[in-house]
Amino acid sequence: MQKKREGDSLTMIEVRFILFMLLSIPLLAEFNVEGHIDITSQFYPLKPREKEGENFTAAAVLKSKYEADDFMFNIALKAQQDYYDLAEESKHTDRSFVRIDELYMQYEFEDDAVSFGKSIKFWGALEVDNISDTFNLVDFRSDPFSNDKMGSWNFTYTHYSDDGEFNAIVKFYEQDREMSAYPYVYYYFPKDIAISATASLPLEYDKRVITKNSQYTPTLYLKYSASKEGEYPLDYAFILQRGYDSQRYFTTKLSADGEKFITQERAYEVNKLTTYATVVANSTLYKIEALYCDVIDDESVGDYMHIGVGVEHTLTQVYKEADLGLLAEYYRYVTFQKDKFDDLDLYEIFENDLFLGLRYSFNNGDDASIVGGAIVDLEYDESLYYVKYESRIAELFKIKTDFRYIEPSKKHLTSFHYMGRHERFMVELSYYF
């Protein structure tokens, strides 16, 4: 039997923290509650063999906030149920869960604020991929195109100035991460690994992250963000980080009984400098995100750099009240040590990629828009095409549709190569309350 790790008790920590904060609040009737329920259908005309050709998912997000004077208590829950998890066991995708995304309290002073608990932070400026948005992990059980982030336990101190703010953040815990099961289209590992020409052993994913030091080794962030008004409005941020990197890699080994292979994520510690910014000139928005990572001590991963630049030019009232946005972005990922993992080993998608797209905003009062484009890999000769539409209906409902097609590399072992040629249609209906 494997030894139980500290991380396995995190759910009990969350329960105790909820009880503590509820007992700290005298007027529960003043809670503000909102949320939404989503019904999602996805169909895959092109997909890997042995994977389900469709999936049906119901999800609910519940958010509640209590405010009294300078004190705030916030909680956000997410529950998801996949249809196949109700079917026979061989069809289970293991995509059903109940998750606490946010659970924190915050106190405001005149020019300062402190918060403690589990929270989600949003950093970045680009359209396709926010490479600087590295505070929270993404849940492997959700649609990989949805950027479904999980909350992280942290303490945050904030100081407000006239044109910006300074944050000192301590993240307390490096999370384990669940993954969907093999029948789901976006489970990326093979079912087994060949050990000879005629024999193979099963491959299993172990959710427990491997760390050189304790999972409770803190990760520190110093962040400064500000805005400048004027002829060319500017928003920018700088982040210094010391601790576990958001990028992880997988290690595979034979189990102790020799009857299967086990693959796990490995986290490593870094010094990292990140920045992102936007500037507006007339009808054009210029965007940049960039980071440099100094890996402190890891046998497989070396120092790396990731940069993304973008431009969005808006043509106003091209048809009645509608606006048309012309989008272009370029991403470059570089590793600096030849004897360590490169972008293919790390499953990095945006390593030398160009995105060209359009955004059509109807501006008719229901937030209706169409966004689409192509992402072309300039190094490995692969591409992704997508178009998505979303709109509100009668203030309480939102509908989203999405089409994606992936043409993978034929010569290189990229993430898309492992997936194979891929086509997907998605429809989602949400009720907001």
CATH class: Mainly Beta
How many strands? 22
- The overall pLDDT, averaged over residues, is 92
Contiguous helical run count: 2
Gross morphology is globular
Chain oligomer state = single chain
The radius of gyration over CA amounts to 23 Å
CATH architecture: Beta Barrel
Query: How many domain units?
Result: 1
Major beta-sheet overview? 18 strands, antiparallel, barrel
How far is the N terminus from the C terminus? Answer: 46 Å
Q: What is the beta-strand fraction?
A: over 45%
Write the element-wise H/E pattern from the N-terminal end onward.
HEEEEEEEEEEEEEEEEEEEEEHE
> Which consecutive residue ranges, at least 5 long each, have pLDDT under 50?
1-9
CATH superfamily, by name, is: Porin
Query: Under CATH, the topology is which?
Result: Porin
Helix content: under 10%
Category from helices, strands and their pairing: mainly beta
Structure description:
With 433 residues, the chain is mostly beta strands. It has a single domain (6-432), classed as Porin. Helix content is 4%, strand content 55%. The chain is built from 2 helices and 22 strands. It has helices at residues 10-23, 415-419; strands spanning 32-46, 54-68, 71-82, 97-108, 112-119, 152-160, 164-171, 192-194, 200-211, 219-228, 234-244, 249-254, 261-267, 269-281, 284-295, 304-319, 322-335, 352-361, 369-377, 382-393, 397-407, 422-432. It has an 18-stranded antiparallel beta barrel. A 4-stranded mixed sheet has the order 8-9-13-12, with no helix packed on it. A hairpin with an 8-residue loop joins strand 15 and strand 16.
